[in-house]
Write a structure and sequence with these properties.
Blueprint lengths: L22 H11 L9 H5 L12 H13 L6 H10 L20 E3 L5 E3 L2 H6 L3 E2 L7 E7 L11 E9 L8 E2 H4 L3 E4 L9 H8 L6 E6 L20 E11 L2 H7 L3 H6 L2 H20 L3 H17 L5 H25 L2 H14 L6 H17 L3 H14 L4 H23 L13 H17 L7 H16 L5 E4 L6 H13 L3 E5 L6 E5 L4
Antiparallel strand pairs: 1-2, 3-4, 4-8, 5-6, 5-7, 5-9, 8-9, 10-12, 11-12
Length: 524
């Protein structure tokens, strides 16, 4: 007989937040996880409200089967341990595992102050297989799961880790960088800590690539009060930590203390330590959404690399590699901040290094970001040139193809605007000498001046309103150009006044008929 676990689950478990595609699949999984009883239950006695309840015994072979299944599912604490924890806390104490008549396993019990044996908690059992960390007053215990390489991480280092954090008897972590698919980068404490103290002590004991499990006493975690409701009072915490990478931040301070002449004479490896440390700090700020701070770190690295006097071919190759990486990273930061002219500057630095000196993947990124910036600045022709070149290198790249699709939409909208407003093209070919061209421009300017008394057509007004509303709601676009050189003065004034009412930044350059008008969204 199986316990009806499914009946206790929420009715909408298959409707949202479930990993099961069908109810049958859910039923099958729950059936696998159900324990079988050794003997049947007296249902009449079970239903009797004035009765003493019913003792039951689980099938021992089935207990082992479910344990193995739960390990495969990633469950840390088995149901038997949870029942024992409930019983020891006098919650549901009517439950008696194994029928209540089996001998107590001394390896799973401990003697309390009154000399009585109590079921040992799962963390207590685990701690017996672990070692105390030095300088933790026996409040942090460690179990090595996978060896790392190199030296232990020094205080002040910038560390990148993946971690899971558990309270006792919880199958799922209350916090997990793996669940977010984003590792944690932080500066390992020298004085005050960015994380709980026990976490810092744990990481200080590790090496690059190492995976270890730690138990942290409440005093070095969340204290007696905890953080309800996720973390109970006086809770011991289990951390599983993997060190992805670390950079000794002291190399940044040491290099910046050097004089100009000392920097010129410093070994190239010291310069690489410095710029790579700046890169790690930049990455930390970028992941935190602090793009301006990240960009400043990348800029420091670029400046140092540009000032370095290259001594041989190997140094030149490494310098080009680092300059490419930091310029591309800076371009991404500028994209995030809507500073598209700066994007073009960074990408230009990459292009000036030459295709032969730049990694093909990074070269493609520079083409993509410069094409995206040109699109946002309204230079659709250059945007298409850059994006098509990027697609030549990576024809199946989703971001490149999506940007080309958005570019085609922008071009189509602009052509529709030109068509609907009957743009005033010069009727004569612009052939002849320079004086003739100047005469034509003057006539066109006079024509536009004469049209001041006119009003834009209703169709024109509606089209402009629709374009501005669509532009306002399009998060992928920060600027939009208008072909003002082909519009009359009244039409330009209508665009400017309407754009101003929406709060857009208006960039007008030149004089009719060669005026350009670009609208930009204000910075948030």
């Amino acid at each position: 007989m199986e316990m009806p676990i499914k009946q206790m689950m929420p009715k909408n478990i298959t409707e949202s937040g479930s990993d099961f595609e069908t109810e049958d699949e859910m039923d099958s999984k729950f059936d696998d996880m159900c324990y079988r009883l050794k003997d049947g239950l007296d249902l009449k006695a079970l239903r009797n409200p004035s009765g003493d309840g019913v003792d039951f015994e689980l099938d021992e072979e089935d207990i082992e089967r479910v344990k193995e299944l739960r390990k495969e599912e990633g469950a840390y604490f088995d149901t038997e341990e949870k029942f024992a924890a409930l019983a020891s806390a006098n919650v549901g104490s009517w439950i008696t595992l194994g029928g209540g008549d089996s001998d107590t396993d001394s390896s799973n019990t401990e003697v309390d102050e009154d000399g009585e044996q109590n079921e040992m908690g799962v963390f207590k059992k685990l701690s017996r297989k672990m070692e105390d960390l030095p300088n933790s007053e026996k409040k942090v215990k460690k179990m090595l799961l996978k060896e790392g390489t190199g030296s232990k991480i020094p205080a002040g280092a910038l560390v990148t880790v993946h971690y899971n954090a558990f309270t006792e008897y919880a199958d799922e972590p209350y916090d997990s960088s793996r669940a977010r698919a984003q590792p944690l980068s932080f500066k390992l404490a020298t004085t005050s800590s960015e994380t709980v103290i026990g976490f810092d002590l744990a990481v200080k004991s590790m090496k690059k690539g190492e995976l270890s499990r730690f138990l942290v006493h409440p005093d070095l975690a969340y204290g007696k009060k905890g953080v309800p409701p996720r973390i109970p009072e006086n809770a011991t915490i289990m951390f599983e930590i993997e060190v992805i990478n670390w950079v000794d931040a002291s190399s940044v301070l040491a290099y910046e203390r050097l004089s100009y002449s000392e920097r010129r004479e410093a070994p190239f490896r010291e310069l690489l330590k410095y710029v790579r440390a700046q890169g790690e700090f930049g990455k930390k700020y970028f992941l935190a959404g602090q793009f301006r701070k990240a960009e400043s770190r990348y800029f420091k690295a670029i400046r140092v690399l540009n000032k370095r006097l290259i001594k041989d071919e190997e140094e030149e190759k490494q310098t080009h590699k680092e300059l490419t990486r930091f310029n591309v990273n800076s371009a991404v930061c500028s994209i995030k901040q809507g500073r598209y002219h700066d994007v073009l500057k960074n990408c230009k630095e990459v292009f000036e290094l030459g295709f032969k000196n730049v990694d093909r993947k990074q070269w493609t990124k520079a083409l993509y970001f410069s094409g995206k910036a040109c699109h946002r600045l309204g230079d659709y022709q250059q945007a298409r040139v850059k994006l098509n070149k990027a697609r030549d290198f990576q024809p199946h790249d989703g971001e490149i193809n999506e940007e080309l699709r958005l570019l085609n939409i922008s071009v189509k909208k602009m052509k529709e605007l030109e068509k609907e407003t009957c743009l005033r093209m010069f009727s004569k070919d612009k052939k002849g000498d320079n004086s003739e061209s100047q005469t034509e421009n003057k006539k066109e300017a006079e024509k536009q001046e004469d049209s001041k008394s006119e009003s834009p057509s209703a169709e024109f007004q509606k089209r402009v309103e629709d374009m501005l509303i669509e532009f306002m709601n399009d998060d992928s676009q920060n600027s939009i150009p208008f072909p003002s050189g082909r519009l009359n003065t009244v039409e330009i004034q209508f665009i400017v006044m309407t754009a101003d009412s929406y709060g857009f930044i208006i960039d007008q350059r030149g004089e009719p008929p060669n005026m350009t008008v670009t609208l930009r969204k204000p910075k948030k």
